[in-house]
Design brief:
Layout lengths: L11 H6 L7 E11 L4 E11 L2 H8 L3 H10 L6 H11 L10 E2 L4 E2 L4
Antiparallel strand pairs: 1-2, 3-4
Helix pairs in contact: 2-3
Length: 112
């Protein structure tokens, strides 16, 4: 059985073969535009990996004010929210035909 039993921890040889998983932290900003008339959504997202110890501590802190302060003041991080807000405020659908569905076929029309 190669040292592995159901419901028990694997042997050191099997564990040594398993890849090491590292925690990674990512800030994700998401905006969802619901297009009810077209029965669809548009999702805009931005993400920023957090690797600095200060950021990881802020993200894992039980104190919400620590996280809030980090989001407002950390270089690179503090610019994400204004960028996302600008995207949301200026978002415009130029070609609505991209969302047209052929009712008989249930397929999206092809735009050439």
């Amino acid at each position: 059985m190669n040292g592995v039993r159901t419901g028990e921890a694997s042997s050191s040889s099997a564990a040594a073969a398993a890849p090491q998983l590292e925690k990674e932290y990512v800030l994700v900003y998401i905006a969802v535009f619901r297009l009810g008339e077209k029965n669809t959504d548009i999702v805009v997202s931005m993400n920023l990996p957090v690797r600095a110890e200060e950021g990881i501590q802020a993200l894992t802190s039980d104190d919400g004010s620590v996280l809030d302060n980090y989001l407002r003041t950390a270089p690179g991080v503090c610019s994400l929210e204004p960028i996302m807000l600008a995207i949301v405020e200026n978002f415009e659908i130029v070609d609505w035909s991209l969302f047209d569905v052929d009712q008989e076929e249930g397929e999206y029309s092809q735009v050439v």
